[in-house]
Amino acid sequence: MRYYVLDRGDQLSVRLTESFHKMAAEQGLQLDAESPDIVVSIGGDGTMLHAFHTFINRIPSIAFVGIHTGHLGFYADWKADEIPELITMMSGHSDSGQLMPRIVRYPLVELEIQKKSGTNSYICLNEFTLKGVGGTVVAQVDINDELFEMFRGDGICVSTPSGSTAYNKSLGGAMIHPSIEALQITEIASINNRVFRTMGSALVLPKHHHVDIYSRKEQSLILTIDHINIPTDDLISVRCQVAKQKISFVRYRPFPFWNRVRNAFLD
Ligand code: NAP
């Protein structure tokens, strides 16, 4: 079993990483920064976003597991004091009778961003957003190659099901169970009056649909892919659809989505 650890960089996470390596070596796990089987993120959900993008080119052959150092996360279910138990399970030495971990796979959103300066592809774990810098965004939204609406406002968010509990939730979007292969489009402060009109509701698109967002004026934009910001002055369009790839998480014990939602927002 080859593993790698990525931490948040704060004192506690760094210390936990050091002790993780020590315990892992004792259990015969092999540290491998190039081709790990499992990537462990120590910190919070934000740290998992970093881990995902660090290994973006190896997503099909990696499974992720998250340890949280603060509150229970959506991607991080292990507590710091449970690290010895996690390592025992990773090394297959557990006597709990549950040696075979479950792998759960969550949908992602893939993007093709077309600019005058070139075209690039990206994948998001949480969401893509397009936001204006110092002015109203004007964008045409097409669904499956047909005009849907002309958007005016602060921006547009396109999220994955697991990202639906993040920025999407703050925008009034629905929380979607990650077993549903879909993407969700939410508006960021759209202008709605007698002249300008948008749908105003979040839209959930199935796997086989796609949305194209066309920039409809010369405008300075910030495109975000999870925690990554890309300032852009020459956007032509962005195509978003449910990605062909999925992210895998190792589950050594159950971590039900609705329990996480309740813990995060109600408890
Ligand atoms: P950040 O601004 O430092 O943290 C954003 C917060 O979002 C953190 O509390 C983080 O949890 C939480 N989070 C991340 N993924 C989540 C998920 N799937 N479900 C529920 N909560 C989640 O930024 P960051 O750590 O670099 O994370 C980038 C993310 O921030 C973006 O992907 C976006 O979803 C989110 N964001 C939210 C808003 C908003 O709600 N208004 C605005 C901008 C960005 P941890 O503390 O466990 O890391």
Automatic annotation (TrEMBL):
The keyword Amino-acid biosynthesis does not apply. NAD(+) binds at D45, G46, H50, N126, E127, R152, D154, T165, A166, Y167, N168, K169, S170, A189. Its EC number is 2.7.1.23. GO terms for biological process: NAD+ metabolic process; NADP+ biosynthetic process. Its main location: cytoplasm. The active site is at D45 (proton acceptor). Transmembrane segments: none annotated. The keyword Thylakoid does not apply. Its cofactor is a divalent metal cation. GO terms for molecular function: ATP binding; metal ion binding; NAD binding; NAD+ kinase activity. It is found in: Cytoplasm. Pfam families: NAD_kinase (PF01513), NAD_kinase_C (PF20143). It catalyses: NAD(+) + ATP = ADP + NADP(+) + H(+). Keywords: ATP-binding, Cytoplasm, Kinase, NAD, NADP, Nucleotide-binding, Transferase. GO terms for cellular component: cytoplasm. It comes from the Bacteria. Belongs to the NAD kinase family. Involved in the regulation of the intracellular balance of NAD and NADP, and is a key enzyme in the biosynthesis of NADP. Catalyzes specifically the phosphorylation on 2'-hydroxyl of the adenosine moiety of NAD to yield NADP. HAMAP family: NAD_kinase. This is NAD kinase. It comes from Fontibacillus panacisegetis.
